[in-house]
Structures
1.
Amino acid sequence: MPASTITPSPSSSPPAHRHIPVAVIGGGQAGLSISYYLKQRGIDHLVFEKHTAMHVWETRRWDAFCLVTPNWQCQLPGHPYEGPDPHGFMRKPEILDYLAGFRKAVDAPLLEGVAVTRVSRRDEGGYDVVTSAGTYGADQVVVASGGYHTPIIPRLAERLPETIMQIHSEQYRDPGSLPDGAVLVVGSGQSGAQIAEDLHLAGRKVHLAIGNAPRCARFYRGRDVVTWLADMKYYEMPVERHPLREGVRDNTNHYVTGRDGGRDIDLRKFALEGMQLYGVLEGYDGTALTFRKSLRKSLDEADRVYNGINAAIDKYIADNGIDAPPPSVYAPVWEPEEDPSSLDLAAAGITSIIWCIGFQPDFRWLDAPVFNGAGHPKHHRGVTAIEGIYFLGLPWLHTWGSGRFSGVARDALYLADRIEESLKAGGDRRHELAAAG
């Protein structure tokens, strides 16, 4: 049966061991992207989603959230951005509308509200896919559930006063949802830096513990930095050609924002305006939080990366004789007098803490030897060493854009080709065995 004719209903339990050629786990942009290409090939499949399709964009994003890459980079398969502002940055409602249009265009064979609890190899080949709505058999399994599953909150959080509200970045919505008083934001990656800015612009007293996140300019020499880097083919660089190789997958993303048309996020400027900055959070002594004396080093390193990216753009402009505004180098607008080592929570009036230190992957439901010692999948372009197991939608699966709207289509197309080849080879083998028998 062609995939386009499947109309599963999660409200009715399917018979045990119904067979499908391909099971896709996860109904986000990755899962629907591979569905798009499988449907083109007439490959029967089901997409399992334990919540609703693309739910993380609504449930894990704050109200003022916007893209940090320009809209023209939204290139989901069959559904490129075609709005009026290609060089702008969609805000949350616009993103949800864009994704709703993608879902409608794909019309995937989707089972929502169906959790996959275990995938295991059958002795005779193929896989058992155990779900909350019954068990399926599948020849191929595409894990498209991403890598951001379990919010990271440190154990020291358990010892903090109960009077302090503690939430993870995925739970933050807006400044008014927090109690009156000062706010501590822990982590300065994209979420931490943007949430700290959101609170700061609302007039809240913000304390920010920063880590090793780099930063980049929003605009440089007359264009968005993303546009320059795209012209320089940076986003086409595969992971094996990156100077860090697979180590780039562990990197924290550069902080920048698309808010109000796009601008830099300069933590030094925030400090001038009253935000309190600290180094890496290390502990709690019963009264005060303690910090590593790493603030100055972290700020300097973030600026080094910022200027380094701009210098690479300078070289590209010079090498190609491009007419552009003159170059510049960022000079710090503020320097810490000292690295603060502690923060007395009561004395500072801290009433809420937002943990912005990321997520851990959780693939415990997948019973297959495809993980390294840190629990991360081992693969090449999403293809694992175990026949029939694939990954899609992970950061730097193949290129920088793999976990984003810009690159997931290319990865999904590649995997769809591999799946088609594998299914055909399996069919040919069965035909040969039948003929021999």
Note: The chain has two domains: 3-149+361-436, 151-355.
2.
Amino acid sequence: MQAIRWGAALAVLTFNAAAQAASPCDNPTDQTTMNQCAGKALAASDKQLNDVYRSLNQKVSPEGKVALQRSQRAWIAWRDAQCAFETIGTAGGSVHAAMYASCVDELTQAQTKRLSAVNTCQEGDVSCIHR
């Protein structure tokens, strides 16, 4: 009886592993899938950034909230302009959406890391940011 349970568990694990490996984003074969996968990756990174932003926003003083909001808005404008510049060579092409999303994703992950570091500091203490 226990052998049957182990066999069933192994079958489920094998099926789950095969299903995970079969994700279209593991090896996209067409531009539409590449664009969709880049968009999904960006959405996940954006959610992480928003979570860190909300956490930091709850931690800082009222003046810090204003400065954080101003900083984040300026960063978003810079990020979008930077990625528009970096992907200008693909503008109008089918690969542009994936390239742009990939650029925004990379910069979003970097900003998340930076805000996470700030989130570990006491407000005003910048010594822990660049460790």
Note: The first helix runs from residue 2 to 21.
3.
Amino acid sequence: MNIQIRYLSKSGNTKKVADAIAKEVGVVAETIEKAVPGDTDILFLGGAMYWAGVDNKLKKFILGLDCSVKKVAIFSTTAVVKSAYPEIKKLLRAKNIFVYDNEFHCKGEFLKLHKGRPNADDLELAKQFARDITSINNFR
């Protein structure tokens, strides 16, 4: 099975989560600058919520995804607003791409808010999320 990880991280928070997931599933996390191969069984897709919503670069990436990406697991970080899941899910479902109902979301450090987040506990939970997603698909 082919598992890919793509993310957009402006501050490094989402990258930390992407790297934790990558370590757990044994692949390399890549930014959204790298295309996703068409034979992808699971794409772990990460982003963050900003004041105006999901970043336009991430939206463009999603709109360019090939429908041969079978399933997407969403992870996100935010400092103030809620999870990026609803907005990312809506974009993916509009392309008829399956999106897991469960997501991973944690606080991310921004200025003086949530200092040190994501922390070691958050990253362990991200790894558990990856295990849960891959075990659903009998990859292990």
Note: The chain has one domain: 3-135.
